[in-house]
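Thread: Newbie trying to understand structure tokens

Hi all, I'm a second-year student working on a class project, and my supervisor (Dr. K.) asked me to get a predicted structure for one chain before our next meeting. I've only ever worked with sequences, so writing a 3D structure as a token string is new to me. If someone could post the tokens and maybe explain what I'm looking at, I'd be very grateful. Here's the chain:
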Amino acid sequence: MLVPEPVLAAAVAARRVVVVTGAGMSAESGVPTFRDAQTGLWERYAAEDLATPEAWERDPAFVWAWYLSRFGAVGRVQPNAGHGAVARWADLADRGARGAQHVAVVTQNIDDLHERAGSRDVLHLHGSLTSFRCGRCDTAYEGRIDVPEAEVERVDPPTCTLCGGLVRPGVVWFGELLPLDAWERAVALVETADLVVVVGTSGIVHPAAGLPVLARGAGAVVVEVNPRETDVSDVAHHVWRETAAGALPALVAALEGLEERA
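---
Reply by user tm_fold:
Sure, no problem. This is what the structure looks like when written as tokens:
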């Protein structure tokens, strides 16, 4: 695949790179987006009706069972070529290759596919499906999480060993604020970046949708990688109408080729 010349030039010139990823990144691995219809036991419900504090208060066993099904589903899929390319880009930077000196990931996704692909500097804006915490005292839960072999409609959540509160998924639900420390670090990353690559996000979920605007305002080159037009398109300096699994490996391969010829 041919890399657009302005995109490659921006990647070569950049020293600090931030890759901002959304649902489209993981969709290529088979992780359903929140806009997709639910399946199995959950097809009668919208994700927006399950991922809320109100739903948890009303029926924690029901919400926990849904999250266990999502946790199990993510565990069965693999990182795609786009995830792998981002990790390789960071490795290039770590080796002092031509181009970036550091590559960080800011993701709206709650899966761990970036980490499993080998990325080390990954910031989860909306929390992580693979972390759990007490809903009462906020203590991280390190106990075992058992996923039922078959889908069930209710599973009692484990309890906190410190206070006895119910353990909840370590994600940000609809109606909850983003963790302040995560948001402040995301802002700092994009505002000090030379290049921000926005991959597979619609640009409609706030406040994360504001990151490309902040990046451009601070002087970064903004590149959108998405097969469809989005709210990010008007903000980006360069738009690449490709998927993450197609564009990112091509870009990183081009950077690797430049390193070999240097």
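A couple of things are worth pointing out once you decode it. Residues 1-31+79-126+177-262 form a domain with the Rossmann fold fold (CATH 3.40.50.1220). The chain has a mean pLDDT of 93. Feel free to ask follow-ups in this thread.
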